[in-house]
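To whoever is on call:

I kicked off a structure prediction for a single chain this morning and the downstream step that reads the tokens threw a length-mismatch warning. I double-checked the sequence; it's 142 residues and nothing unusual in it as far as I can see. Pasting both halves so you can look.
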Amino acid sequence: MTEPTVPTVTFDITKFHKIGGKHRYCDYSMSLAGGGSVVTLDPSTNTLTVSSKSPVQIVFTATGAYLLAGICFRETGSGKSDPNGTCTFPNVVLNLAGSSSTLTLTDTADTSSSYEFAMLVVGINEEALGLIDPPIVNRPPA
């Protein structure tokens, strides 16, 4: 029996900007592996779309000399039934292992919603903290 593929998002930070500097967020690109039809990525806007009524785990990782250190959410759009994302993303697990890190979140949205999230990044060479800010859109099937 084969294990289902867990969608994995990899951040490639192209220009690190420390918190409190001239720029608010780091420059980055994202890639997605194993999303299938459940998790998709629009590379032109760095938007992740989750299309499932069932909970979906997504693993995030960073490349190079960067570690993921935390995440927070903000619901966008009208309605805002879960402004801080605590119901939609009830489980976040951070795994720091030497010079690598993964952040796994569970997306439990069963209704349409949109979130921005800020992910805290440690720039090892810069000895500083930075932020990246991609959006997540939930569009479960009817």
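Update from on-call: the warning came from a stale cache, not from the record. Cleared it. Sanity check on the structure: The mean pLDDT is 91.
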